Amino acid sequence: MKVSLAISAPSSLWRKAPRARSLARETIAACVAECGLAAREGVEVSLLLADDAEVRALNARWRGQDKPTNVLSFPAAPPERLREAATLGDIALAFETVSREAEAAGIPIADHYRHLVAHGFLHLIGYDHQTDEEAERMEALETRIMARLGVADPYTDRAVAE
């Protein structure tokens, strides 16, 4: 099954992350393969490569939290309607936060970016981490996706995505 990934990069900061577009495509493909996602062929996902200011504004408007965050996900359809949906939803990433977190964790920004793209995608298809059980299930799936991509377990040092 193929996902159509529409990428918008209004922040020039993302030029510092070479291959951001191809890494996102590879990551989404790994997510689909690992999840066994059953959705319409060519279902669309939008990825916004933004800066902290833009993600902060989105976070304030849609989550009531006036602060930047690493990744935001906006599902377009409930999990039970994914098979019919033309669009899974939108993912937004904030460059400065992603970069700062990668540096603090001592990991390549590309690895952290892949993890956050996967994390955001999983939210679009119904995964969450509100309870310990949900978090364990989601984290295990993210770890398998990262392994498929040759990326270390993002939870070994508890570098948790929000």
Structure in words:
With 162 residues, the protein is an alpha/beta fold. The protein has one domain: Metalloproteases ("zincins"), catalytic domain (Collagenase (Catalytic Domain)), CATH 3.40.390.30. It has 5 helices and 4 strands, in the order βαβαββααα. The protein has helices at residues 20-35, 52-63, 95-105, 109-124, 132-148; strands at residues 3-8, 43-50, 71-75, 87-94. The protein has a 4-stranded mixed beta sheet, sandwiched between helices.
Label the overall shape: globular
- How many distinct domains? 1
The strands making up the biggest β-sheet line up spatially as: 1-2-4-3
> Within the CATH hierarchy, at the fold level, what is the topology?
Collagenase (Catalytic Domain)
| Terminal CA distance | 28 Å
Query: Helix and strand string, N-terminal first?
Result: EHEHEEHHH
Helix share bin: 40-55%
Mean pLDDT: 93
Question: SSE layout and pairings?
Answer:
Elements: E1 3-8, H1 20-35, E2 43-50, H2 52-63, E3 71-75, E4 87-94, H3 95-105, H4 109-124, H5 132-148
Parallel strand pairs: 1-2, 2-4
Antiparallel strand pairs: 3-4
